[in-house]
Amino acid sequence: HMKGAIFDLDGVIVDTAKYHFLAWRELAAQLGFEFTEQDNERLKGVSRMESLRILLEVGGLELPEEEQQKLAESKNAKYVEYISKLEQSELLPGVREYLTGLREQGVKIALGSASKNAAFILERLGIAGLFDAVVDGTKVSKAKPDPEVFLTACRELGLAPQECIVFEDAAAGVAAAKAAGTGIVGIGRPEVLGEADQVVAGIFELLADSQ
Ligand code: B16
Ligand code: MG
């Protein structure tokens, strides 16, 4: 019986990956190399600095730490420009209905995301009020697959991991949830999310079960 539901942000609630991609691609272009949508797959669920490290690896560049900080800031400025225009219609199908339904059943709801922009994105999407706890990249120091983000979310909800279910689209996130000891619903393709207890294509598929 699920007492708490913990949602990843990018890929579960909203497709911000496309805006991350545009911002990273612009940065790569400035640095003089091409960054493809396929390269971008490697950045899903990964922290900002780790994403930059992968991007620089794609471009075959090695840069000093200080320079890397500046590039990460510059990428984030571009990204923030995109998400400032985010619209409520960009909420993925079924998300608002599913979260509202869970609340009505008394299930506590948390966000468990690597993003430092998570609170802003929830505001833009008009769903911030549906969350009992928001645990994001500003609150945790160890990135997924480390369980810190989900363990913190359970603690903030006042629940044991065994009482919670994590909804995740990235392999690193599924691994993090596994390590935390929560239940796991994978969002996406079974090939990538094999370790989840259940895999669905999107939150919309869960609506029928919950009503
Ligand atoms: P920021 P999630 C992750 O979100 C994204 O999937 C990943 O691509 C991004 O690098 C990371 O957030 C950090 O985002 O630069 O906004 O701090 O899937 O954990 O919700
Ligand atoms: Mg994600």
From TrEMBL:
User: Could you tell me which Gene3D superfamilies the record lists for this protein?
Assistant: HAD superfamily/HAD-like (3.40.50.1000), Putative phosphatase, domain 2 (1.10.150.240)
Q: Which CDD domains match?
A: HAD_BPGM (cd02598)
| Taxon lineage | Bacteria, Bacillati, Bacillota, Bacilli, Bacillales
Q: Which InterPro entries match?
A: B-phosphoglucomutase_hydrolase, Beta-PGM, HAD-like_sf, HAD-like_SPP, HAD-SF_hydro_IA, HAD_sf, PGP-like_dom2
UniProt-listed Pfam families: Hydrolase
SUPFAM superfamilies recorded? HAD-like
PANTHER family to which the protein is assigned, alphabetical: FRUCTOSE-1-PHOSPHATE PHOSPHATASE, GLYCEROL-1-PHOSPHATE PHOSPHOHYDROLASE 1-RELATED
Which organism is this entry from?
A: Paenibacillus physcomitrellae
Q: Which NCBIfam families match?
A: bPGM, HAD-SF-IA-v3, PGMB-YQAB-SF
The name of this protein is Beta-phosphoglucomutase
